[in-house]
Predict the 3D structure of the following.
Amino acid sequence: MESADMQLVMFALIATIPLVGAMMAITPLLQPNGQAFSVSVPEVAQSDPGIRVLKHRFVTIIAALTAILTLVAVVFCLMGSMKAVMALVVAGSLAPLVAGYGLIVRYRRRVQAIKRERGWEAEGRTRQAEAQQRVAEIGEGAEDAPRAISLAWNWLYAPVILLTVGVAIAGYPVMPAQIPVHVDFSGAVTDVAAKSPAVAAFPIALELFLAGCFAFSHWTVLRSKKGTEPGNPASSAWAYGMFAHAQTVFLLVGGLVITAVCGLLIELSMIGVLPITGAVAAIVVVAMLIAAGDVILNAVYGQSGSRVFRMQRSAALLVDDDAYWKLGLFYYNPGDASLFLPQRSGFGWTVNWARPAVWAVMAGFVVATALFVVLCMAMVD
């Protein structure tokens, strides 16, 4: 049974490769109409032959790389070479990302050349004025548009954590003196921790940390600059609102599920109700299902809601803020007060690296994560 659980874990982990590869492969297909490989273009440019060829080539390369890596990982898994599988999972998950962003940087230069050849320039306004106008138009014509759900919904984590606290208290008297905390690829226990209140509280600490991370992610969405298309400000604001609403609902539900599964199953395995291999298998499978759901959600809505409505495409380049996107990946605009904004190359949100507050927030998150890791090591030592 333990061996079967670990086999399931391996196949679930292998699924990380096609999930990451699929997300990266569809990235250029789901961006807003006014963008192509992180370059501002007229919305009608999505039909330009040169840009369509680059998109097709991008998808083909990433899909082929992902398929090869997935196949190799499956072969090694069937051969029972679990260490090789783990190495391939790590490399296979990073390879599509590295290759994808490398191609985005490369194809960005080609799109910029196409842009110059076609004479696509923002008319009548400077890039700085356009960027400022874009900020001013946030929410224009969309006072009743859908919105991200309230941060107050994150109080739902409280009953989940309290349930785990109750299980820990009720199960502590029957908890074994030696608690398995680590297994190898065959499912054999390789490390144990002596029974103690600190060890019993580890799943609770994990839930608190996860709840904090998900709540922080939710907060960044609420604080983000909204993504709108100047040619269709009202329609795109509605589309972005639907996108943000769906993303925050999924973030909340997915966060509650994975937090509950991690905390409760680890606690139950410590008590002896559930084998540790079964807990690990369930956690990994649930995490992969949530990741797959996120890929589907992004494919349905598109970045910033670009697939929600079929909007009329403008032939004019209304906004050109390429100067603020370094390598097309990193947003750096001292004139923009926003801390967070929709990602240009990929899905979700990114940060304005020109704002000192962003660096403070990032430093605080890194410190909090490091302290959590140290705390966990001390709790199960």
Q: What stands out?
A: The chain has eleven helices and eight strands. Residues 2-379 form one domain.
